[in-house]
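hey so u asked for the seq, here:
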Amino acid sequence: MNSNLNIENFLNDFSHTCKNVQKKSFRKNQTITTYIQKRNQICILLNGEADLVRYDLNGDKSIIEHFTKNDIFGEAFYIVTINNELSVEAKKNCDVLFFIYDNIHQKCTNNCKFHQILSENFSNLILNKVMDLNTRVEILTKRSIREKLCGYFNILSTRNLSQTFSLPFSLTDLADYLSVDRSAMMRELKSLKDDGFIRKNGNKITLLYK
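ran it, structure tokens below
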């Protein structure tokens, strides 16, 4: 969301005057929402962390996206079919705003500032979402596990403006996010360390090749 937006004022307007938006709280590991057809729901993560996940017929999980504070998600960004069910799971305790896309540009009956602020910032929200989705596509198009790891590490390094950064995932979740076998990924991480490409301390990674 636009960094110029005062989130505290935004929430205050919502909680006191707007009847078209809901705020809900979720505990770690709870399902925040499941994407369904014919519902243009959009959500904003106010705090905490969450993952957009898909389970295949064998119960194997893929992490499509990872969300942190002020990230936006919902059916409006995906083509949802019966055979392509997606859900958002809380990785930490979360507070989330829920609203329907069709209502964004409708003037609130209580004349609150929520819809005006949201309309003014919606273009930025969409642009940020497109950038996130492009990042995901870029990673998945890498051919080898090493290329996927290095590509993702480069992205995190650039975002943090540092060669040292923390992984937002557990290693199991990282494998799910990269769509690779965890054991094979662990071997490649060890190889990257042994070859002097990275230094790893817990969930902190330092790039040695930049």
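The radius of gyration is 19 Å. Helices lie at 7-17, 114-140, 145-160, 171-178, 182-194.
lmk if thats what u needed
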